[in-house]
Design brief:
With 481 residues, the chain is an alpha/beta fold. It contains 16 helices and 21 strands. It comes from Streptomyces composti.
Length: 481
């Protein structure tokens, strides 16, 4: 039910109140309801959140035909059939289908099916264990939580402080994934995941893309070769990549944007996307009423409980541990279990890899970048492992030497690396770059998470001829080096 439409003013008590109905909030609610706790969920926008309408689902809908066409063009006997341009209108229509036309009725029905109560409106903490919801019609409802309030409000795009930015209506990730047409000329500012994925999508859908990167390359948080291979492919597709470049000002006149860089370049464009980081959506949720700083990331313990507040949880992006939907959902399962255990007076498991500890946030965070080629990584890069004090060695394999890769694509280009802890003989991290490698990363995630000894990995036999045979090549390279 949608309680915010009610005219009643008496406080309503729940066991748990969840702020935010994105994937993280939904999963917290699912776990607490499964434990028999009464749960209210508060949402100011669409149930399903950023992932469903402005991030994961629309972006991958835009990218899937781009990557499928690129793969097909590498298959002998097929490439001539896919030489024409993509049907941009059809791609955008499918994107709209995957976002349900930005209608959340289906996800509202799911919330109702688990027995959670939905309150539409802006939720703010107004004291300990208390949330006040203000509806779009000005109605106010006060909710109290017997056991926990979970802040699952996510993050938003962070825009730089630039002269003229307020007047030009720049794109953020939201506009980039929901645009109704491909701009003729698109400037993308940034070199991370959003920047590279959106550059890949819109270049293929008809835009002329210029990528402005402040640093020395793309995907700086991954192994260096990941960004190098993605940059090479983007350039071959027609994108103009300028590294070591910052934007100093932007202006729009008669519909045309002028972007000025610190190198004195003046670039004309139709739209500009700033993919320059994220900020927590905590600026107006009442943190000041409980002694916390509005607009701040919320520090938590491993059960996702906010430091200094035994009833308050921060789950997903807001705690800044791992800004990824799948990690947020993982945290939500942990937090929901911890809330339920504490509510029942049961012990909370604090041992690593226990049911109430988000250990994977530190040890085994997987990520796939859906560019062409795909880049996928889990755990620590070589540099991160060395900085953490581990004695490690990088083992690299050219993916083109793997039989399955050659069958997957003519002229396959890719690379794999495993970071081996030479003292414990386990994997600290694994990175794959190449067509189709996104489906490889879960096997690496299992190996890193479970700390599988390298001698045991020899007995995990990869099927022939698949790209997964790279595991055998990596083990051989480690043995022979």
């Amino acid at each position: 039910m949608t309680e915010s439409q009610s005219t009643h003013n008496a406080p309503i008590a729940y066991d748990v109140v969840v702020l935010g109905a994105g994937p993280v909030g939904e999963n917290v609610a699912d776990r607490t309801r499964a434990a028999g706790l009464t749960t209210a969920v508060v949402e100011s926008e669409l149930v399903g959140g950023e992932c469903s309408y402005w991030a994961c689902m629309p972006s991958k809908s835009l990218l899937r035909p781009v990557i499928a066409r690129a793969d097909a063009r590498r298959v002998p006997g097929l490439r001539r059939s896919v030489q024409g341009p993509l049907d941009t209108a059809e791609v955008l229509a499918h994107r709209d289908y995957e976002t349900s036309g930005w209608d959340d009725a289906g996800q509202v029905s799911w919330l109702e099916s688990i027995g959670a109560d939905l309150y539409r409106g802006h939720g703010r903490l107004t004291g300990e264990r208390t949330v006040t919801v203000t509806g779009s019609d000005g109605s106010r409802r006060v909710l109290t939580a017997r056991h926990a309030v979970a802040v699952c409000t996510g993050s938003r795009a962070r825009l730089p402080d630039l002269p003229g930015l307020d007047e030009i209506e720049p794109w953020t990730s939201r506009e980039a994934t929901s645009a109704k047409a491909a701009p003729g000329r698109l400037v993308v500012v940034g070199g991370g995941v959003v920047a590279t994925e959106m550059a890949t999508a819109w270049q293929a859908l008809g835009s002329r893309v210029t990528l402005l990167v402040r640093g020395g390359g793309l995907l700086a948080r991954m192994e260096p070769f990941a960004g190098e291979l993605v940059a090479e492919a983007l350039a071959e597709a027609g994108a103009d990549i300028r590294t070591g470049t910052s934007v100093t000002s932007v202006s729009r006149e008669n519909g045309t944007l002028t972007v000025v860089t610190d190198k004195g370049d003046r670039i004309e464009a139709d739209e500009i996307l700033f993919a320059t980081g994220r900020a927590p959506r905590t600026d107006d949720i009442g943190l000041d009423t409980i002694g916390l700083e509005p607009g701040s990331w919320l520090p938590v313990d491993d059960s996702l409980r906010v430091t200094g507040h035994d009833w308050l949880y921060a789950v997903g992006d807001v705690n800044h541990r791992a800004l990824l939907t799948h990690q947020g959902k993982y945290q939500a399962r942990i937090a929901g279990a911890a809330i339920a255990a504490r509510a029942a007076g049961e012990p909370v498991a604090t041992d690593p890899w226990g049911a109430h500890v988000a250990t994977a946030d530190d040890a085994a965070v997987p990520q796939v970048v859906f560019t062409d080629p795909e880049a996928a990584a889990v755990g620590l890069s070589l540099a991160e492992a060395e900085q953490a004090g581990h004695r490690v060695r990088a083992v690299d394999v050219d993916l083109a030497t793997v039989a399955g890769a050659g069958l997957y694509a003519d002229g396959y280009r890719g690379r794999a690396r495993m970071v081996v802890d030479v003292e414990e003989e386990i994997l600290r991290g694994v990175t794959f770059v190449g067509p189709g490698v996104g489906e490889l990363i879960h096997s690496a995630t299992i190996a890193v998470t479970a700390r599988v000894p390298l001698p045991r990995l020899w007995h995990a036999v990869p099927s022939y001829p698949t790209i997964s045979e790279v595991w055998l090549r990596l083990l051989e390279a480690y043995r022979d080096s």
